Amino acid sequence: MQNTIKVERAIKNITQDELAKQIGVSRQTINSIEKGRYVPSTILALKMAKIFEKTVNEIFKLEDTD
Amino acid sequence: MNNTTNKIIECERKKIHQLFGFQLHHKYKLLGVIIAISGLCCLFIFRMSAGEAEIMREVFRKLILIGLLMISISKDKVEDEMTITLKAQSYKFAFICGVFYAIIQPFINFGVAFLFSHEENNELLQLGDFQLLFFMLIVQIMFYAFLKLSR
To answer: Are residues B69 and B80 in the same domain?
Structure first.
């Protein structure tokens, strides 16, 4: 699954640590999600979408292999 | 199903969820390390001083297991869904390793005893509960640490 969290963070000008604190996870979790090593739960995806003021579909996209 | 039955089922479900989610506070991790190391040192000193009281050896073994269990079930500094997932993976891996260990280890013991021991009585040595639990807890703790580092 692809995601645009890094881009969205850059637009909002927030660090991984700040984003992690806002949604109540560790910085490593944000890093893992950004790199595609961890697929977040629906709740976490919705929390991110709320912070970035986008829909979940705009941030996360399925790949052909998914 | 009537309303009362539904309420009972819902109550049971909540209790099971609470039970599954049980974890010790982060500070217990350090306490677990101290207990496990103390138990290990005591066992080592006891063996070196040629102590033969089986009860003491058993107490030190239990201390080690309690310490390792505390490390295993205590929370991380920041506990989130990824750490919970990684812990679940590490428990699964440790369980599978434990089963294989329990199957293979007696044969390895037998092989070693057969090759290097001069005694005639080379029976299949059964695996003790301490040995197996110690192995599984160590595998779980180390595999969890490895998974966290590799993320």
So the answer is: no
Taking the C-alpha atoms of residue B81 and residue A25, their distance in angstroms, rounded to an integer, is 8
| H/E segment holding residue A61 | strand A60-61
Q: Which of B75, B98, B124 is the last residue of a domain?
A: B75
- Among A29, A31, A43, the residue to mutate for chain B (most B Cβ within 10 A): A29
pTM as predicted: 0.81
Identify whether residues B6 and B69 lie together within a single domain.
yes
Digit-coded pLDDT (tens) for B49-98: 876 777 888 899 999 999 999 999 999 988 889 999 999 999 999 999 99
**What is the domain extent for residue B54?**
1-75
Which residues 59-78 of B have a C-beta within 8 angstroms of A?
A: 76-78
Task: Kindly state whether B85 is in contact with chain A, defined as any CB-CB distance less than 8 angstroms.
Answer: yes
Contact A20, A27 (CB under 8 A): yes
Q: Which helix (H) or strand (E) holds B114?
A: helix B81-116
* ipTM of the complex model: 0.82
Residue B66 distance to chain A (closest CA, Å): 28
